[in-house]
Amino acid sequence: MYSGINISQTDARPMYLQIMEQIRARIAAGDWAAGKELPSIRALASALNVSVITIKRAYLDLENEGVIVTRHGKGSFVADVNGLAGELKDAQLEQHLAEAAGIGRQLGLSEDELAARLRRAWKNNDK
Q1: Mind listing the domains of the chain with CATH numbers?
Q2: Mind listing the pLDDT tens digit for each residue in 42-51?
Q3: Which residue in 91, 88, 76 sits closest to 24, CA to CA?
């Protein structure tokens, strides 16, 4: 484990996607603020027992998404983008709601029944 990043061998997704998802989650949760230096590619690869290419792919994709920035000779850092953490949380919420809607359909719930369950979960979360 390195900085709260774990690779699951039982997860069907490629390792680089697992790494990307966990880095996004740390940023969305506010654990990693803008400007925070990420572990070097080699250090993270060694800590997670994965290839340097795997980490490099994850970092490159995150950089292309604007989640991180890489400064040649300095390392990789959480991007200093206003509202990025909020956008990541919003995207995460949308994903969970889509999954909940899919499960609701599988269970044969109507839209109103699913909405009622969401309201109940909302109220229970206040306790």
Answers
A1: 15-78 (1.10.10.10), 84-125 (no CATH)
A2: 999 999 999 9
A3: 88
